[in-house]
Design a protein that fits this description.
Length: 305
C-alpha cells in the first residue's frame, strides 16, 4: 500500500514514526476518516474544514490542510482503488520533541500521515437494512468532543462494552442527555421531527449529520437540534446513528428494549434512500475521476514548507 508521510508518498510498511512523536506520547493529534465511493470522494472540503478547526484550537504549526485533498485522490489512484469503495485516513500530530507536556519551543514540524484502505460495505449495508442494537453508557469523555482528536480511550472502552453485549454502537449519555455514539452521531424521531443534539463542545459536528439534516429539509421532514433526554427516549418512534462508515443506520433496540416496533422505521428508510440518490448524483457530477493530467502533482504544497 502506498501511503503519505510528511510530504512524500511511501510504502506504508516503510514509514517510521518516532517514539517521541506527540501523537504517540500524548494523543496530541487529530484525525479524519473520509469515505470514497467509486468516483466520489465524499465532501473532503468539510472534513478538511473540521481538521483545520481542530488544528486552530490545538495551535498546531500547520493549521490549513487543504493541500491534502489532492493527496487523498492521488492515494486512491496510486493504490488502484478508483473503482472501489474505500476509506481515506488522515492523522496529524503536533510533531516530534522530547517529552514535556507544554508545547515544544520552537514548534516542531507537524507530522502528517495519510493512508487509504478498501472498505467492504457489505456488513454496514446489512446493518442499515436490519438495524443495530445499541446500549447507553455514561459519557466519560472530555469537554472538547468537537475536535476529532485521537484521544479515544473512552470511545474504545464504550465500543468494547457494546461489542461484549452484541450491540453495534454505544450512545454516550451526559447529564441525562443522549449525545452521540462512539463513532457516529445520534438522532431520534419524535412524532414527525428528527431530533439531534445541538452542536456544542460535547459532540463532534458530523459531516453525515449535516448532510442528513439537509436531506430532511429536502424531504420536508422537520428537524430540531435540541437535547434528546434519556427519560423521554421511550417516546421516540425511531432512533438512528449517522456517520462516515455507518451512513444512516437505524437502532432497533436500545438497552434491549425495542425502539418503535423493533424494526427500521419509515423516516430512516426515506433518509437512506435519499442519501443513496445523493451519492449517485454526486458520483455523476464529481469531475476528479478523470486520469491525472500531465504535470499535475499533488505534492506541490506541503504542510511544512
Ligand atoms: N467517526 N461522532 C463521533 C464521536 C465520531 O467519531 C464520528 C466519526 C462521528 C460522525 O462524523 P462523520 O459523519 O463526519 O463521520 C460522530 C469516524 C468515522 C471514525 O472514528 O472512524
Amino acid at each position: 500500500m502506498t501511503a503519505y508521510f510528511n510530504g512524500r508518498f511511501m510504502e506504508k510498511d516503510e514509514i517510521r514514526i518516532s517514539p517521541d512523536d506527540r501523537g504517540f506520547l500524548f494523543s496530541d493529534s487529530l484525525y479524519e476518516v473520509i469515505r470514497y465511493y467509486p468516483g466520489l470522494l465524499f465532501r473532503p472540503e468539510a472534513h478538511i474544514r473540521r481538521l483545520n478547526h481542530g488544528a486552530d484550537h490545538l495551535r498546531l504549526a500547520c493549521r490549513n490542510f487543504s493541500h491534502l485533498i489532492p493527496v487523498a485522490r492521488d492515494l486512491i489512484r496510486k493504490n488502484h482503488l478508483a473503482d472501489q469503495d474505500a476509506l481515506v485516513y488522515i492523522q496529524v500530530t503536533r510533531g516530534t520533541a522530547p517529552r514535556n507536556h507544554a508545547f515544544p519551543d520552537p514548534a516542531p514540524k507537524t507530522t502528517v500521515y495519510m493512508c487509504v484502505s478498501c472498505f467492504d460495505p457489505a456488513v454496514k449495508d446489512r446493518q442499515r437494512k436490519t438495524g443495530i442494537h445499541a446500549i447507553t453508557v455514561p459519557d466519560i469523555r472530555w469537554a472538547r468532543c468537537d475536535m476529532k482528536t485521537t484521544g479515544l480511550t473512552a470511545n474504545v472502552l464504550a465500543s468494547q462494552q457494546a461489542a461484549e453485549k452484541k450491540a453495534g454502537e454505544a450512545i454516550f449519555v451526559r447529564d441525562g442527555v443522549l449525545m452521540e455514539g462512539t463513532h457516529a452521531n445520534f438522532m431520534a424521531v419524535f412524532g414527525n421531527t428528527v431530533t439531534t443534539a445541538p452542536l456544542s463542545n460535547y459532540i463532534l459536528g458530523g459531516i453525515t449529520r449535516e448532510t442528513v439534516l439537509d436531506l430532511c429539509r429536502e424531504l420536508n421532514i422537520r428537524t430540531s437540534q435540541e437535547p434528546v433526554y434519556e427519560n423521554r427516549i421511550h417516546l421516540a418512534s425511531e432512533l438512528m446513528i449517522t456517520g462516515t462508515t455507518t451512513e444512516i443506520t437505524p437502532i432497533v433496540t436500545l438497552n434491549t428494549k425495542p425502539v418503535g416496533n423493533g424494526a427500521p422505521g419509515p423516516v430512516a428508510k426515506a433518509l437512506q434512500a435519499a442519501f443513496s440518490s445523493k451519492i449517485k448524483q454526486m458520483q455523476k457530477q464529481d469531475p476528479w475521476f478523470s486520469p491525472m493530467k500531465k504535470g499535475e502533482n499533488s505534492l506541490n504544497h506541503s504542510e511544512n514548507p
